[in-house]
Design a protein that fits this description.
With 432 residues, this protein is of the alpha+beta class. It has eight helices and 26 strands. A hairpin with a 6-residue loop joins β18 and β19. α1 packs antiparallel against α4.
């Protein structure tokens, strides 16, 4: 994103170092603090406010608001797509009855005009966003190292609801559609980030449940085992939301009593274990799809009767298939998509952990029904990869710290979704 001269000037205006200020001495401090002789809880906040205050000014919120408004109206040019994009535009302010303010962006509804909603700089790496089943303005966001956050005003403001969680490394969430106050979260980030990026800090967990909309949480004691150290995804049964399915690093598990007890449906030793779940919304027998494997040969399994049987079959397995995300079309559940990362580097290493392919079944996902929609072997795709990934021709691998590791991240950021009203419209993110 290029910065205009006006932008740089505005940033200089906002910079604390650009504002002249008088020396703050002991006589400038609040009287109560001078008498106490030691720091008070609000001393740091007071100091930061005075440090940023322009000389001879009494207050500054109006200046921040004016600067933010001016910045939002500046024209923008995106070098990545080589074109101008709409200004962020000032938000429309709506006053709520309790005196708080909700801000809505008036930016054009295009992909390059997204408006950040939060939960803020302490929300962690957001892994889950879920809407309340009946309250349309209520949504939840959950993040690794950030816990669970709730908004009741379309994302205008957020509050943490995970104070009762003993583990805030949230990686998955499921809300009971019949009892919306019942929420399950899976903790532990199971994508090998600690290995691939060399952090050496595995984030482990279990399954927690709330029966009061997130106000309090309880660890499901049966998940305090090695099988639930990394809970990668959760789904609820269609006819019975007391049935909970969990994809973990050691396989797929089912609970028939809201998480109090579990039985294993699938055992796997493939690297990464099972990472993604998708369940048909129109079948009471719980037709469940599961993808397992990352950096190893992956596969997609289908459980035709997950509600009462552990029988399954591999329905999609392609050479070099890595981590695979799944999505079922809400408007036509016979249509199922899968997007796989590539374990093979391909020409110049360009493909490694980038896109392997997108696959689709229009007849319920049975074996032999999947068709290839796009692959990285397409010459046009290769040209796109080399243009959008300037490091790919020389890096050639995804070893810890390599250039490709941070650009082709199909092992870590791999998301697929289908438009709720149109089974032909698909959204994908995380691979190039």
């Amino acid at each position: 994103m290029a910065l205009s001269v006006a932008t740089l000037g505005l940033l200089a205006t906002l910079s604390p170092l650009a504002w002249p200020r008088e020396t703050i001495g002991s006589n400038d401090r609040p009287e109560a603090e001078r008498e106490a002789g030691f720091d008070q809880p609000d001393a740091a906040a007071w100091h930061e406010r005075m440090r940023r205050m322009p000389a001879n000014a009494n207050d500054m919120p109006a200046m921040y608001a004016q600067a933010a408004d001016a910045l939002s109206r500046l024209g923008r040019f995106a070098t990545r797509i080589n074109r101008s994009i709409p200004a962020a535009q000032a938000a429309t302010r709506a006053w709520i009855g309790d005196g708080t303010v909700r801000e809505r962006s008036s930016a054009a509804s295009v992909l390059d005009a997204w408006t950040p909603l939060g939960p803020g700089n302490i929300g962690g790496r957001t892994r889950v966003v879920r809407f309340h089943p009946t309250a349309r303005t209520t949504l939840f966001a959950a993040g690794v190292s950030g816990g669970v956050w709730r908004s009741d005003d379309d994302g205008g403001s957020w509050r943490p609801t995970s104070d009762g969680l003993t583990n805030i490394n949230v990686n998955a969430m499921a809300i009971d559609p019949r009892r919306p106050n019942v929420i399950y979260v899976g903790t532990g980030e199971g994508y090998f980030r600690e290995e691939i990026r060399g952090t050496g800090l595995p984030l482990r967990g279990g399954v927690y449940a709330s029966t009061d909309g997130g106000a309090s949480w309880q660890l499901q004691r049966a998940t305090a085992t090695d099988d639930f150290l990394w809970v990668n995804d959760l789904e609820l049964g269609i006819a019975d939301s007391q049935r909970v399915y969990a994809a973990t690093r050691t396989g797929v598990f089912r609970s028939a009593d809201g998480g109090a007890s579990w039985e294993q449906l699938l055992r796997t030793t493939v690297r990464g274990g099972c990472l993604d779940l998708a369940i048909r919304p129109d079948r009471s027998e719980d037709v469940l799809f599961v993808s397992c494997g990352s950096y190893d040969q992956a596969a997609v399994y289908r459980f035709p009767r997950a509600a009462d049987s552990s029988a399954s079959e591999i329905v999609l397995q392609v050479e070099h298939q890595g981590r695979t995300s799944l999505a079922i079309a809400p408007s036509n559940p016979n249509v199922i998509y899968a997007m796989a990362a590539s374990n093979d580097g391909g020409p110049g290493g360009s493909y490694r952990q980038g896109l392997l392919g997108v696959y689709r079944s229009t007849t319920g996902g049975a074996a032999g029904s999947w068709e290839t929609r796009v692959t990285n072997s397409d010459a046009n795709k290769l040209n796109t990869l080399l243009l959008t990934n300037p490091y790919s021709a020389t890096a050639g691998d995804c070893s810890p710290g390599s250039a490709n590791e941070f650009i082709n991240m199909g092992w870590y950021i791999n998301v697929l979704a289908v438009d709720p009203l149109d089974a032909e419209r698909v959204w994908a993110a995380g691979v190039s």
